[in-house]
Amino acid sequence: MFASLIQYRLNPIFKADFFRYWKEHRQYLMDLKVLEYAVLHRETPIAYLSYAHWSDRKEFENHIIDPQGPTWTFQQKIEECCNDVRVLHRMDIIKDSPLYES
User: Fold this and answer.
1) With contact defined as beta carbons under 8 Å apart, do 4 and 64 qualify?
2) How far apart (Å, rounded) are the C-alpha atoms in residues 102 and 85?
3) What does the pLDDT look like over 62-95, one tens digit per residue?
4) What pLDDT is recorded for position 79?
5) Candidate CATH numbers 2.60.40.1180, 1.10.540.10, 3.40.1280.10, 3.30.70.100; the one for domain 2-92
6) I need a surface site. Which of 48, 53, 64, 78 has the fewest CB within 10 A?
7) DSSP states of 20-66 as a string?
8) pLDDT tens figures, 33-42
9) Packed helices 69-80 and 15-31: angle between N→C axes, nearest 10 degrees
10) Where on the tree of life does the source sit, at the highest rank (predicted)?
């Protein structure tokens, strides 16, 4: 499994559109079974963070870093609502953490 943290800095006049497109994009990716879940967090009144669990790194890269088709269309709509979009973290999920020994 894989997790990502993406920061969206919104243009305030497109805030409602951003939320609609983000939800539609999330549902589309969940229907494809490449996204397990995604949660949107408010950082400031115009900055939001999306924390998401993906099936694997390849699916994240295919749908966020180098999107094609409908995924590209969703990405464009979301980015048009923002002044800035940044992938802050890309993280492999460790299922069984090794025990720390001193």
Assistant:
1) yes
2) 41
3) 999 999 999 999 999 999 999 999 999 999 988 7
4) 97
5) 3.30.70.100
6) 53
7) HHHHHHHHHHHHTTSEEEEEEEEEETTEEEEEEEES-HHHHIIIIIS
8) 999 999 999 9
9) 160
10) Bacteria
CA distances for 30 relative to 63, 70, 71, angstroms: 12, 14, 12
Please, is 33 exposed, middle or buried when counting C-beta atoms within 10 Å of its C-beta (0-12, 13-18, 19+)? exposed
CA separation for the pair 101, 40 (Å, rounded): 36
> What integer best gives the mean pLDDT of the chain?
94
Identify which of 89, 87, 77 has the alpha carbon closest to the alpha carbon of residue 28.
Answer: 77
> In this structure, which amino acid lies at residue 87?
V
